[in-house]
Amino acid sequence: MMYHKPTQTPTRRIIWLLVAGLLIVAAFGAFRSFQLRMPGFDQSAILIDGPPTETALLPSPPPVVAAAAPATATPQPEATSEPTPPSEMLAPPNDPPQFAHDGEIGIADGMVPEGTTVFDTDLPAIANLDPALLNALRQAANDAAENDVVFNVTSGWRSPAYQNQLLQEAIVNYGSEAEAARWVASPETSTHVAGLAVDIGPYKALDWLIQHGDNFGLCQIYGNEVWHYEYRPEAIESGCPEMYLDPTHDPRMQP
Questions:
Q1: Pairwise CA distance, residues 151 & 153, whole Å
Q2: Cβ distance 109 to 137 under 8 Å?
Q3: In a domain, 75, yes or no
Q4: Which among 55, 102, 187, 195 would be 20 to 30 A from 143, CA to CA?
Q5: Structural domain of residue 187, as residue ranges?
Q6: What tens digit of pLDDT does each residue of 94-142 get?
């Protein structure tokens, strides 16, 4: 008896075609889902009518980050080794008025050589000072010397002739008697002529006197003359009195 292979019916063929189609669709969907999950995949490059382009399949290059500029350190001002001494802050721009002296005025009238100190008693400018003032100056100078501070005397006692010459020179240099009076007194009113005042330098010595002068009764009298010192014994207990703005405000300077 001969065996005959049964032939497929149309219904069974259709079912197989449908299953095959579903498998193809599922495979395509899985492939597409895998592409969308790829790192750096450019979804905007997918074509509506076809598969994504070659460019879309390539991962995007990492973003370029600009290197941060090195921070520039803000320059700091160089620290000074020590603060400015009070005397240098208070001192006017010039030292005591110095003029070229004419005539016969000399050491006998109170002029002093450079480097004169309060111990140079062979000079009239020192020897003719009031004894109380000179004694206080020497005590202060001895104490200051322990800190390597030297008191130089730029002017002390003056003769009336010397004082008058300084006044006349000041009038010429400052342009008027009123302006000259702020710096140089007349012979009749000058505390230098009376031996009651002394001009001290340099500024290191003045700085020391600003801090310690009242302990010896030594006081700056005029705000514009940081070098001019007089003796005030009451300052040892109660401190120096308030300074005059300049000699024109001192009642003693009125003619």
A1: 6
A2: no
A3: no
A4: 195
A5: 86-253
A6: 444 444 445 589 999 999 999 999 999 999 999 999 999 999 999 999 9
